[in-house]
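Task: sequence design from structure.
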């Protein structure tokens, strides 16, 4: 951060949920904004969850976290978003059995329309917004569509969990630590069409840097099993846990916001769902996961990466899905 003595104001929506519970402790420990950065944390949720949030505040107090300047709980968007530096929008309507994607979009459009307007009206104009609730890319689009006074590049969605899943799979297959796997990325929509891509990735070995392909030595696995495993990992967690990802999602949120606030190491690519400027022939205006680098709080889409036909087809497929979702969202917003 530019001035570590200032207090950073961060709001977490859906803070009473499982992800929120893990996430808040990452924030107050200093994992997100740095070990010297004081934080004021606003916990936003619906009115029936206020008692649960009071219990969370008691736990934070009992944890004696020295970086905490204040923690408040509220169900009022105006109170929650006033003078906020960072907004992490975890709360949303989950998909229920028998619900079509358009139904899910309609339910979430109402939530993110309200939050987008509140961000527009009350947050700092420099606010950085991360949308986690699914469908994350299009929920982020809905929020920014209702915040005309905030630059669209200040809105993002979480694809860092897919990115981390991809890194973990490569590390396991290569028999190395995840810290030695670099520049594995994911393209597109946080859905079954997201595309994990290892072609620019490398692994640090005792002998030096080696490409992922040269270490794995199994193109069939990289092209098929690896991609499928990353795409279906969320479902695998639900099948095993009977609940969706929580701690790993909180870790990915923390990674995303830490890098956005503090920057990425020189030459390191990370994946963020960001407002498309037309890079890589992705239609402008959708929220799309690109490889980015970050410096001084500003991300830049990595330019000029070579795209083979397989990658082109995968990017086009996930972009088509996002354009369809965006068109649905625009129609839903026009209804209200």
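Answer:
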């Amino acid at each position: 951060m530019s001035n570590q003595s200032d207090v950073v104001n961060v709001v977490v929506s859906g803070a009473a949920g499982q992800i929120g519970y893990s996430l808040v402790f990452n924030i107050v420990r200093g994992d997100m904004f740095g070990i010297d950065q004081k934080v004021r944390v606003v916990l936003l949720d619906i009115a029936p969850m206020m008692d649960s949030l009071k219990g969370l505040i008691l736990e934070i107090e009992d944890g004696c976290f020295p970086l905490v300047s204040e923690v408040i709980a509220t169900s009022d968007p105006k109170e929650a978003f006033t003078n906020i530096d960072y907004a992490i929008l975890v709360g949303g309507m989950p998909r229920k059995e028998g619900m079509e994607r358009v139904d899910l979009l309609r339910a979430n459009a109402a939530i993110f329309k309200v939050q987008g307007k509140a961000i527009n009206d009350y947050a700092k104009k420099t606010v950085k917004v991360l949308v986690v609730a699914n469908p994350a890319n299009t929920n982020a689009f809905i929020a920014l569509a209702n915040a005309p006074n905030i630059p669209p590049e200040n809105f993002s969605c979480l694809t860092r969990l897919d990115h981390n899943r991809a890194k973990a799979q490569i590390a396991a297959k290569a028999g190395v630590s995840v810290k030695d796997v670099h520049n594995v990325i994911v393209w597109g929509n946080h859905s079954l069409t997201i595309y994990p891509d290892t072609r620019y990735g490398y692994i640090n070995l005792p002998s030096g840097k080696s490409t992922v392909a040269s270490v794995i030595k199994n193109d069939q696995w990289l092209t098929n099993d690896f991609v499928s495993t990353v795409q279906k990992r969320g479902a695998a967690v639900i099948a095993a846990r009977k609940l969706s990802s929580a701690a790993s999602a909180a870790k990915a949120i923390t990674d995303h916001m830490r890098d956005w606030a503090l920057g990425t190491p020189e030459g390191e690519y990370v994946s963020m769902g960001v407002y498309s400027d037309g890079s890589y022939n992705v239609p402008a205006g959708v929220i799309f996961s690109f490889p980015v680098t970050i410096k001084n709080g500003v991300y830049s889409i990595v330019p000029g990466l070579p795209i083979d036909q397989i990658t082109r087809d995968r990017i086009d497929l996930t972009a088509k899905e996002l354009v369809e979702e965006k068109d649905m969202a625009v129609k839903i917003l026009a209804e209200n």
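The first strand starts at residue 8 and ends at 13.
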